[in-house]
């Protein structure tokens, strides 16, 4: 299929996908907690709400991995209600999404920062800092701005002093939603971020912020990858046995979100929905920057992993073709290990175990992990390609007076490269797609950028289509590059 036909098919599927964004009409009948039995109720995994709701047998529970997935299910009528934090949305966001709060459960949960168990020095420093912040009245001004304002304009907030020298205060964030922590205009904002910036300034240390998935946040802290973690972490006795909590700074009531009856009037056309979606995902808060930054990160990981993995693959190819049995046995064992271990598991082992204490950044660890994995695939392609060259080519080179090295470099290797490039191209494209898992170690690649877009716009279609288009274009460029390389070798 030609490239033009592929693009036409992609655009057709994109257009057909937009009607799926249509919000389910009709107002919910849920008005209080007593109305929940018999309904389909959703919540987020890893939260206190899931722990409480999973024991109830009088409702059908749906657990989602992210808030955008849950809100999308609510708007499309797959669930009747979503249980989440009371201040998760501003009034304007509620109107835009077509949802409302039906009721709030009056028992609040306290939210705190979590620190590594036994790190009493940092916990005491934070508690002292927070007490001073409350005593001065500054913390009240902070909560009034971030939590209770009708519209938050981060650019109007005072700039917090930052430091560039010293050991960074590493904050691992799991929240991507106002008012606690969200990404806007190219930087992190929110109440938790504001507290972290002030605490880092209090310690005269630079602040380093990373985004980590909720299931990985405890491991991230215990393995020393972060000094403190946040993201609406509720205090519970069970959690206090694993981490140390600082002073609570935020109280949240569980809220039940339901669909709002749409206002009377003409419904937006398909073109208007597409236009509003593009504006919300790319232009508001300059969110296109996240996509660009994620794209650059994906390109860096892919390029260096292919380059370093190919060099290591050449070494494995030589070892696999060597007459020494031990070298061949090592290559077989290496290939078996890389084939048997999932790439995500390899990435996590490299990040949290093998390279945990050497100070390498997540980006460097990702390149190292993917290079090692790609070396196995590349080495196998090189080895099979060399073996596919007819033995007569070796004999012909030696017959005309070339030594073995000259015969390999001038006769055998060009033919082997030409034979192996199609398989090598497939491995390069597979590596590109595999880089989508780097978000598990707090790297902002293009896939994670798409997730952040969804968390801010609550649009499930356009961010996914953009990520799909990016990977499609990158794979196409890799394919073109390999074909060009194949043409060069054929005409050499």
Class inferred from helices and paired strands: alpha/beta
Question: What number of domains?
Answer: 2
Give unreliable regions as ranges: 15-22
Number of strands: 14
At the fold tier of CATH, the topology name of the largest domain is MetI-like fold
Measured between the Cα atoms of the first and last residue, the distance is: 29 Å
- Looking at the structure, what is the overall shape? elongated
What is the C-alpha radius of gyration, as a whole number of Å?
27 Å
Task: List the strand order in the largest sheet.
Answer: 2-1-3-14-4
Give a quick account of the main beta sheet: strands, pairing sense, barrel closure: 5 strands, mixed
Q: What helical percentage do the residues reach?
A: 40-55%
Q: CATH superfamily of the largest domain, please? A: MetI-like
Structural notes for this entry:
This protein folds into 2 domains: 110-251, Periplasmic binding protein-like II (D-Maltodextrin-Binding Protein, domain 2), CATH 3.40.190.10; 288-490, Orthogonal Bundle (MetI-like fold), CATH 1.10.3720. Helix 10 packs across helix 17 and helix 12 (325-340) packs across helix 14. The strands form 4 sheets. Strands 2-1-3-14-4 form a 5-stranded mixed sheet. The chain has a 5-stranded mixed sheet with strand order 10-7-11-6-12. It has a two-stranded antiparallel ribbon with strand order 5-13. By secondary structure, it is of the alpha/beta class. The chain has helices spanning 3-17, 48-53, 67-75, 91-97, 120-135, 138-146, 191-203, 217-222, 237-240, 270-283, 288-321, 325-340, 343-354, 362-388, 391-399, 404-434, 446-457, 462-490; strands at 40-44, 60-64, 81-85, 99-104, 109-111, 114-116, 169-173, 182-184, 187-189, 207-211, 228-230, 243-245, 250-252, 254-259.
């Amino acid at each position: 299929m030609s490239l033009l036909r592929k693009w036409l098919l992609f655009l057709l599927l994109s257009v057909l996908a937009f009607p799926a964004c249509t919000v389910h009409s009709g107002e919910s009948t849920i008005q209080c907690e007593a109305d929940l039995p018999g309904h389909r109720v959703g919540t987020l995994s890893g939260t206190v709400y899931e722990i409480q709701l999973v024991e109830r047998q009088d409702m059908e529970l749906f657990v989602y991995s992210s808030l955008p997935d849950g809100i999308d299910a609510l708007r499309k009528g797959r669930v009747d209600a979503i249980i989440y934090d009371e201040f998760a949305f501003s009034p304007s966001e509620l109107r835009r999404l077509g949802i409302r709060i039906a009721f709030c459960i009056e028992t609040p949960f306290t939210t705190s920062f979590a620190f590594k168990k036994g790190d009493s020095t940092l916990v005491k420093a934070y508690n002292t800092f927070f007490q001073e912040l409350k005593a001065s009245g500054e913390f009240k001004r902070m909560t009034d701005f971030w939590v209770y304002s009708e519209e938050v304009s981060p650019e109007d907030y005072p700039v917090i002093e930052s430091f560039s020298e010293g050991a960074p205060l590493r904050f691992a964030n799991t929240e991507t939603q106002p008012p606690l922590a969200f990404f806007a205009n190219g930087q992190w904002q929110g109440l938790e971020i504001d507290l972290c910036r002030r605490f880092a300034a209090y310690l005269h240390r630079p602040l380093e912020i990373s985004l980590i998935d909720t299931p990985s946040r405890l491991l991230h802290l215990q393995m020393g990858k972060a000094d403190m973690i946040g993201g609406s972490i509720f205090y519970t006795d069970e959690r206090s046995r694993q981490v140390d909590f600082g002073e609570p700074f935020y109280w949240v009531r569980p809220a039940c979100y339901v669909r709002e009856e749409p206002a009377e009037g003409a419904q937006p056309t398909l073109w208007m929905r597409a236009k509003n979606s593009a504006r919300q995902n790319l232009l508001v808060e300059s969110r296109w920057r996240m996509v660009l930054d994620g794209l650059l990160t994906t390109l860096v990981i892919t390029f260096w992993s292919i380059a370093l993995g190919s060099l290591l693959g050449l070494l494995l190819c030589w070892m696999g073709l060597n007459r020494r049995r031990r070298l061949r046995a090592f290559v077989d064992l290496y290939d078996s290990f890389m084939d048997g271990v999932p790439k995500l598991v390899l990435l996590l082992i490299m990040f949290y175990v093998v390279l945990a204490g050497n100070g390498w950044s997540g980006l460097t660890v990702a390149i190292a992990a993917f290079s090692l994995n790609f070396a196995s695939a590349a080495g196998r392609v090189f080895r099979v390609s060399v073996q596919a060259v007819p033995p007569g080519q070796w004999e012909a080179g030696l017959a005309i007076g070339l030594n073995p090295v000259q015969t390999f470099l001038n006769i055998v290797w060009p033919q082997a490269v030409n034979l192996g490039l199609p398989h090598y191209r497939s491995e390069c494209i597979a590596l590109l797609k595999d880089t989508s898992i780097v978000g598990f170690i707090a790297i902002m690649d293009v896939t994670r950028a798409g997730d952040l877009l969804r968390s801010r716009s609550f649009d499930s279609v356009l961010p996914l289509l953009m990520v799909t288009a990016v990977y499609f274009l990158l794979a196409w460029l890799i394919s073109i590059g390999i074909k060009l390389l194949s043409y060069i070798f054929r005409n050499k």
